[in-house]
Amino acid sequence: MKICFVTCSKEPLLTNDDLLLSKYLLNKNIVVVPAIWDDITVNWQAYDAIILRSMWDYHTRIDEFNAWLDKLELLGCIVLNSVSIVKWNQNKKYLADLSPLGALLPPYHFCLQNSIIRLTDIMAINNWDKAVIKPAVSGGSFNTWTTTALSAAADELRFAEMLQYGDVIVQKFMDEIITNGELSLLFFNKKFSHAILKKAKPGDFRVQAQFGGTDEPAYPVESVLKKAQSLLNTINKPLLYARVDGILLNNDEFYLMELELIEPALFIGSNENACENFYEALHNLSMGKS
C-alpha cells in the first residue's frame, strides 16, 4: 500500500509526528510519501489514499485549496478525512451545528463577512469583559487576538478590516484556558487514543508551540471521554482522525473550543500506542470497517 501525507510548500517534509507514523506504517507494508498539496506535478491517483496532514497554509488560500479538493474528488481519489468533512470543518460556523447535538460551547457571536457591526456593541450586548477574535477560517491561532470592554473601541478598525476578508467569530474569553489549559482528545476512527493538556506561556493565551505553549500527556475522566465520543458519533462520515479540543469547567464539564478534522497535530510521540491506534484506524477504514 502506498499513501501520501499531504504537506505544504513552506513545510514540505513530514513533521516529527508524521515521521513516527511513517516509520511505523512502513513496518506494516504501508509506504508514506510527503506530497505538497499545490504541487501540479504530483500524480494523486498514484496513491491508495491521500491523508491530509500539514497543509498549514490552506486557510490563507481557501478557494485554491477547495478547488484542489474538488479535483481529487473528480479523480476518484480516497481522501482522509473526506472532502465533505473537510469543507464542513473549514469554517467555524460548524459550531452552530454541534450545539443542538449536545455540545457545550463557550458563548460566541458569529459575524458574516462585510457585516456592519461594532465590536463594542458585541461586548456590551453580551456583557463580556474580555473576548477572543479570530477568523472563522483559520488555523494555528492565525490572526487571533483578544480585546476587552475597555479596549474594544480602539480595536474597531482592526475588527472591521477582518470582516472585509471573511467571517469572524468573537468568543467570550474563558479564563480556564489560562488557569487549567486546553485539553486535546485524540480519536482515530472515532475511537479514543490519547489525550494532551496544552498550556500557554505566561502572559499569553495561545497554547500552540509556536507561541511558546507547552503540552503534556493527560488522562481525562470517563465522563469527559463519553462527551467527546458522543459528539463524534453524531458525525455520519468516517473520520480517520479527530482532535476534540476543549476546556473543563467545574472539574468535569467539557466545553468544546474546536473540533479539528483537517490538519490537527496528533501528538503521536506522547503515547506509546498512538502509532498502532492510527494504523488500526487506517487499516479498518481501508477495509470498509468503522
Q: Could you please say which CATH topology of the largest domain applies here?
A: D-amino Acid Aminotransferase, Chain A, domain 1
User: Which percent range fits the helix content?
Assistant: 25-40%
Order of helices and strands: EHEEHEHHEHEEHEHEEEHEEH
**Main sheet: strands, sense, barrel:** 5 strands, antiparallel
What overall geometry do the principal axes of the alpha carbons give?
A: globular
Any guess at the CATH architecture of the largest domain?
2-Layer Sandwich
Number of beta strands: 13
Beta strand %: 25-35%
Low-confidence stretches: none
Q: Work out the radius of gyration.
A: 19 Å
The main sheet orders its strands as: 11-10-9-12-13
Considering the protein shown, what is the CATH homologous superfamily of the largest domain?
Answer: ATP-grasp fold, B domain
Highest CATH level, the class of the largest domain: Alpha Beta
Mean pLDDT: 94
Give the class from helix and strand content and strand pairing. Answer: alpha+beta
Total domain count: 3
Termini, distance in Å?
19 Å
Instruction: Give me the number of helical elements.
Output: 9
